[in-house]
């Protein structure tokens, strides 16, 4: 299936696709990049994009050794542990766009 991502996010999307072993091809179309993937759902690709946003935020932070996790990843203990092990970290930061969701859930615990 053909999906479009911004040229700014493209390197992070391809990094996540490679990390997760998802075959792809891409073609730059000016301000956007078309990415072709096979056998992954739209939901799975949306998760790839969210992970790419986490990678972008991590790389641009003052502490790139500390992983940035989405709300989805932080609330899934198995996924969180896998990512912390991958980065060799024992802590993480929540993706800025997911901070309020994380705070709201924490208030109700």
Regions with pLDDT < 50 over 5+ consecutive residues?
none
Order of helices and strands: EHEEHEHHEH
Can you count the beta strands? 5
Percent strand: 15-25%
What general outline do the C-alpha atoms trace?
globular
Q: Please report the distance between the alpha carbons of the first and last residues.
A: 40 Å
The profile of the biggest β sheet is: 3 strands, antiparallel
What is the number of helical segments per DSSP (H or I, 4+ residues)?
A: 5
Radius of gyration: 15 Å
How do the strands of the widest beta sheet line up side by side? 1-3-2
Count of separate structural domains: 1
Determine the oligomeric state from the structure: single chain
Secondary structure class reads alpha+beta
Indicate the topology:
Layout: E1 2-6, H1 10-19, E2 24-28, E3 32-37, H2 42-60, E4 68-69, H3 71-74, H4 77-87, E5 93-94, H5 99-107
Parallel strand pairs: 4-5
Antiparallel strand pairs: 1-3, 2-3
Provide the descriptors you would attach to this structure in a database record.
5 strands, globular, 49% helix, three-stranded antiparallel β-sheet, two-stranded parallel ribbon, alpha+beta, 5 helices, 109 residues
Description:
This protein has 109 residues and is α+β, with helices and mostly antiparallel strands. The chain has one domain (2-107). The chain contains five helices and five strands. The protein has helices spanning 10-19, 42-60, 71-74, 77-87, 99-107; strands spanning 2-6, 24-28, 32-37, 68-69, 93-94. The strands form two sheets. A three-stranded antiparallel sheet has the order 1-3-2, covered by helices on one side. It has a two-stranded parallel ribbon with strand order 4-5. It is globular, with a radius of gyration of 15 Å. The N and C termini lie far apart (40 Å). The mean pLDDT is 94.
